[in-house]
Amino acid sequence: MSTPQFTPLVEVHELQRFYRRPLRRRHIALDRVTCALRPGVVNALLGHNGAGKTTLLRILLGQLRLHGGQLRWRSPRPSCRYLPENGFLEPSLSATAWAPALGTTQAQLAAMANQLGVDHLRHRPARTLSRGERRRCELALVLAGPAELYVLDEPAAGLDPLHLEYLKAVVASLVQKGSTVLLSTHLLREWENSVGHVVLLHRGRVLLEEELAALLARHRLWVPTTASPPPLPREAFPLPGRAVAPAHVPPPSGWSVQPATLADVFLKETADDRTPLRSSDVLPPRG
Fold first, then answer.
1. Phi, psi of 174 (to 5 degrees)
2. How many CB atoms within 10 Å of residue 283?
3. What are phi and psi of 19, to 5 degrees?
4. Alpha-carbon Rg of the chain, whole angstroms?
5. CA–CA distance, 133 with 139 (Å, rounded to integer)
6. How far apart are CA 222 and CA 260, in angstroms?
7. Torsions phi, psi of 61, nearest 5?
8. Percent of the chain scoring above 90 in pLDDT
9. Using CA atoms, how far apart are residues 76 and 96, in angstroms rounded to an integer?
10. Domains, the chain, ranges and CATH?
11. Are the beta carbons of 55 and 84 closer than 8 angstroms?
């Protein structure tokens, strides 16, 4: 894991959290997690389901206590606004009715709702809205108020491509104004161009923490150029129809080089089976 070269907004060191299971068994949700958030950028918290992402978010927000380790904030009382994965709007209430509870003025809500394309829905009860419409109203409520840190857990759930672009534009605007965003998502391809710093969790542990640009620069994507490409060298990691390799390793004949994506690197780093590739594992190129 690389050492972050910045003054962190928040640091966690050797953080531990466990849950009780039947027969008094313990499930370790976070196992000596050490990482930091870079201020003024989008920090992506990545991992498969059950990796510990939501548990870490809730500890940072003070909703869960830690069972070991340390949590240090840069400022004593940072302002923070949180969007939970499962939402929060009550069926009988509208976004305008929720605004005072979140410290959001009606003017702030109207402005943000307009940016997210949901201004015409903010007066309607949540039960009359679709899943995507409810999510957009919740986003408007959370993002409307100023904060030092915005914690967004799967913010694009239920959003169509157009409104995802609206959301990404709003997030970029908040970062330009100096705020920090902590984003937990499975939509790696959709958010790749927005992310500056990556923390990758796997089975409750940090696999890597790195600037996204540096992470992608260390990898290359190999794509087969023939229907029967030659076997890959040991340095390359196989994925369906492609492979990921260190940037300094040249590909053998029958493979072309492309820039690596965050999704490809994620699959490589979190793979539990690192069996060398067989020639039959590689799909022929399309067309």
1. -65, -40
2. 13
3. -125, 145
4. 21
5. 10
6. 8
7. -85, -5
8. 77
9. 31
10. 38-62+81-212 (3.40.50.300), 218-281 (no CATH)
11. no
Q: What are the CA-CA distances from residue 68 to residues 63, 77, 240 (Å)?
A: 15, 22, 40
Three-state SS sequence of 54-113: HHHHHHHCCCCCCCEEEEEECCCCCCEEEECCCCCCCCCCCHHHHHHHHCCCHHHHHHHH
CB-facing half-sphere around the CA of 174: CA atoms within 13 A: 30
Single out the residue of 27, 58, 3, 7 nearest to residue 209, CA to CA: 3
Q: Chain-wide mean pLDDT for the chain?
A: 89
- DSSP class of 148: S
Structure token pair of residue 65: 């206590």
Read off the amino acid at residue 26. R
Query: Where do the H-state alpha helices sit in 146-200?
Result: 161-176, 188-191
Using CA atoms, how far apart are residues 75 and 37, in angstroms rounded to an integer?
13
- Report the alpha-carbon distance of residue 61 to residue 55 in Å, rounded: 10
3-state class of 210 per DSSP? strand
Q: Look up the pTM and report it.
A: 0.88
CB 99, CB 135: distance < 8 Å = no
**Tens digit of each residue's pLDDT (9 = 90 or more) over 161-215:** 999 999 999 999 999 999 999 999 999 999 999 999 999 999 999 999 999 999 9
CB 171 within 8 A of CB 163: no
Cα gap 215→228, rounded to integer Å: 30
How far is C-alpha 152 from the geometric centre of its chain's CA atoms? 8
